[in-house]
Design a protein that fits this description.
single chain; 370 residues; alpha/beta; five-stranded mixed sheet; two-stranded parallel sheet; 16 helices; disordered N terminus
């Protein structure tokens, strides 16, 4: 079960108050760093020794709050670099020219995180002082938080997008970088996604801010989008290309975007309106997803804790492509699409507006329209 890692985008008023507070004497650095209710301590970070990690597209600064860990800091920095390179590989570059990670040692072995964007891309990671090398290798939190860096703040009641994309992308990025086996990606999805199904009183993804719908309902949305994008483009493009295009067009945690702008980037990147259609389908109506049929079509079966594959399944090729590492960045890979696709997507970049008589769910065979 995943820990709750909240995505926080502070309002302008709160951000101003925090900025003013940062001008005051720093006082007790240790307590201010650990107090998550005060936002990210940007000023305190600048006063702590930090280590830059040079990456494609920018630099990640890593600092430690006062406190001790049984692991040498070199080991923790190595873990941070491996995690960052995994995210860079998925996005094609570091999503922002500069980013920060602050490790806050606390008693125990827990690893927990929160990510901010109001003063620059930054993640606070609470790190148990007794955490072992094995704990770091098994951890998903740091990559989950770094994935947030590459996704803009979507205006409106859409925490499910922020957390859903991080929940979906994190294991895929780890698998593409060889940090976990591919089997673990599908095991997590098969076990986790049922928690994202609508329950009594559900009002669609925009209107149901429960833990299950926010994390796993959001992850289910992005899996469905990934599969359908690949179906419509002959497996040439998927969600990874959409997210790389988002970063290439300046979308990251420091930016505010509308949902229409994000969907339009997806349309330009893939020549389809899959994201717009799926959002219209699931935004304000509870939609059950036939996960049994989806796993059958992808050729995935969980037997105990073991994942079995059916390579003769209808969408087995899509399953393999989702976890395969991209051979080239998005701007290069788009040129390999069928002739005219990119040009048409640039002309028809605006999401389609649906009338009351249209059913945007019809293109998604695993979604129940009710």
């Amino acid at each position: 079960m995943r820990h709750h890692c909240s995505f926080r985008r502070l309002t302008c008023a709160v951000a101003i108050l925090i900025a003013l507070a940062a001008m005051l004497p720093l006082g007790n650095v240790s307590s201010s760093l650990i107090d998550a209710g005060r936002g990210f301590p940007y000023r305190a970070f600048s006063e702590l020794p930090s280590t830059p990690i040079k990456l494609k597209g920018g630099s990640l600064e890593v600092a430690f709050a006062p406190g001790s860990t049984i692991l040498p800091r070199a080991d923790i920095l190595g873990w941070a670099e491996r995690s960052a390179r995994s995210v860079v590989s998925y996005y094609g570059r570091l999503p922002t020219p500069t980013a920060k990670v602050l490790f806050v040692p606390v008693p125990g072995r827990e690893i927990n995180g929160t990510t901010y964007g109001y003063g620059g891309a930054a993640s606070r990671v609470v790190l148990g002082s007794d955490a072992t090398a094995a704990d770091l290798e098994a951890d998903w939190v740091l990559i989950h938080e770094l994935v947030h860096h590459g996704f803009p703040f979507i205006v409106g009641p859409r925490d499910w997008m922020h957390e859903g994309v991080a929940t979906y992308v994190e294991p895929i990025a780890r698998a593409q970088s060889g940090l976990i086996p591919v089997d673990e990606v599908w095991r997590q999805l098969v076990v986790g996604l049922p928690q994202g199904q609508p329950r009594r009183g559900d009002r669609g993804l925009d209107g149901t801010p429960t833990w299950g719908r926010t994390y796993w309902g959001g992850a289910m949305f992005f899996l469905l989008a990934d599969v359908e994008l690949r179906r419509r483009t002959g497996n040439r493009t998927g969600l990874q290309q959409v997210l790389q295009s988002t970063v290439a067009e300046g979308g990251n945690i420091t930016q505010q975007w509308t949902i229409d702008r994000f969907n339009a980037v997806g349309a330009r990147a893939t020549g389809t309106d899959v994201l717009g259609e799926l959002y219209e389908c699931m935004k304000d109506t509870p939609r059950n997803v036939d996960l049994i049929a989806l796993w059958r079509d992808l050729g995935v079966k969980l037997v105990g804790r073991n994942v079995q594959y059916d390579d003769a399944a209808q969408l087995a090729h899509i399953r393999g492509a989702i976890t395969a590492r991209l051979a080239s960045p998005v701007r290069e890979s788009l040129s390999a699409l069928r002739p005219g696709l990119v040009e048409r997507s640039q002309v028809n970049a605006e999401p389609k507006q649906y009338s009351g008589n249209e059913a945007p769910c019809r293109s998604f065979p695993w979604i129940s329209e009710r």
